[in-house]
Amino acid sequence: MKSRLAIAAALLSISAALIHPASSQDGVPQEVRQDLMDEVGDATGVMGNMVRGRTDYDPGAVAAALQTISENTAVFADYFPEGSETGYETEALPAIWENKADFERLSQEMSTKAAELAAAVPADLASFQPVFQDFTRGCGACHEDYRQDN
Amino acid sequence: MLKRIAIALVILAAALGGTLWAVAAPDRLPETAFEGLGEPDLANGELIFNAGNCASCHGASETSDAADDAVVLTGGHAIESDFGTFHVPNISSGPVGIGDWSFEDFANAMLRGVAPDGSNYYPAFPYASYSMMDIADVNDLWGYLRSLPASDNEAPAHEVSFPFNVNRAIGIWKYLYMPDGAYVSIDPNDTVLRRGQYLVEAVGHCGECHTPRDILGGLETDQWLAGAPNPSGQGTIPNVTPAGSVADWTADDLAYFFESGFTPDFDSVGGSMVAVQRGLATLPASDREAIAAYLKVIPEH
């Protein structure tokens, strides 16, 4: 009996693996979304260090950074399923699940805006600075209501 | 003999009670405090308004994210605390707000925590910090507030239970906790540090969230800006002393955070600090640098 159960369980796990092929975004949702946001932070840093005058302005690198932000924020809100409210040092606030539609909308808006900007990166730093400032207000718009104070 | 002791104790208790009652009486500003004030400077009033971030508590929540919209100070935001729920009042320029007030009323509210009817405000209104403000700035802020739109929104009454609903109890709180000078000592000849101290300790009332409180809700000033539990119950308000979570930040990093909302590794500002940072972003760069300089010299915790 026990061995039958073990075989059934093994078959189930194989079929589960077939339905959901492994990808870089497989895993615990809390960890996936943290990784996605870490990449967004790194990409923002690429641009922010240019704005702060710490690195030379490079429109190609700006476009790549915006592309990463667009891709990650397009799927970011998918990693907040029911049951992932706590654990893995999550800083997600319960307000996310109370206002899921607004949360998803903000993430999508960020993605759309990043893609638009990636297609029209200014040639010089002076023109990019106000664009960066305006674009990154979107970070606070979401973090104000949906991420814990830290 | 026992009876005499009992009588003496009763007299002592009455005297003590009487003293406390007297100590707890609302304390208005003297007439002389108002001497020499001219017409309010609205530009400076706006700067003070943004540095103190009045809108983050008194503004309508839907207008608070849009810095360009006219600010309507409708009140109504609820502040949950261990003592009850406070409903932030309308302070718009209409009659429900401060439209019918005199400047003396406003100055007594800001600098003494006393309402126009002579009662004490709850210290959820952070007048302990504002009491260190310069009355000229209060005058400018007054002028600016009166230039903003009116709202007829009525905030609900505070929901506070005994004994915290006894108005004179607030007088005792004031006696215990109203600051009688700056919270930290700095070089009095350094004008940059003095400006930073003024913006942090008085106008910006940073300590109200970043400093832990004792059981009566008074600031533990020997732990100035050392961080505290978040009153909302989620997460913590960080320690911003030079040994705290900003230990590795330069003064330039701090000033950049106030300007942009980004930490040195480009994590972004979150929670209630978002609105505070938006206000700071509107200040002159010299004010952000002054705040940063002050945060670098305060005692480490």
Q: Can you describe this structure in just a few lines?
A:
The complex is a heterodimer of chains A (150) and B (301). Chain A contains 6 helices and no strands. Chain A has 150 residues and is an all-alpha fold.
Overview of the molecule:
The complex is a heterodimer of chains A (150) and B (301). Chain A has 150 residues and is mainly α. Chain A has a single domain, classed as Cytochrome c/b562 (Four Helix Bundle (Hemerythrin (Met), subunit A), Up-down Bundle), CATH 1.20.120.10. Chain A has helices spanning 2-19, 29-51, 59-76, 95-98, 100-118, 125-146. Chain A is elongated. The N and C termini of chain A lie far apart (52 Å). Residues 14-24 of chain A have low confidence and may be disordered. Chain B is mainly α. Chain B has two domains: 31-177; 191-297, no CATH class. Helix content of chain B is 43%, strand content 5%. Chain B contains 13 helices and five strands. In chain B, the strands form two sheets. Chain B has a three-stranded antiparallel sheet with strand order 1-2-3, with no helix packed on it. In chain B, strand 1 and strand 2 (84-87) form a beta hairpin. In chain B, helix 5 packs across helix 7 and helix 11 packs across helix 12 (273-281). The termini of chain B are far apart. Chains A and B meet through helix 2 and helix 6 of A and strand 5 and helix 12 of B.
Q: Estimate percent helicity of chain A.
A: 55-70%
Task: Name the helix and strand elements of chain A from N-terminus to C-terminus, one letter apiece.
Answer: HHHHHH
CATH class of chain A: Mainly Alpha
Question: Total strand count of chain B, please?
Answer: 5
Low-confidence stretches of chain A: 14-24
Distance between the termini of chain B: 54 Å
Report the helical percentage of chain B: 40-55%
Provide the structure class of chain B.
Answer: mainly alpha
* Overall morphology of chain A: elongated
How many structural domains can be distinguished in the coordinates of chain B?
Answer: 2
Binding site for heme c (chain A): 139, 142-143
Protein name (chain A): Cytochrome c
Signal peptide (chain A): 1-24
GO molecular function, one term (chain A): electron transfer activity
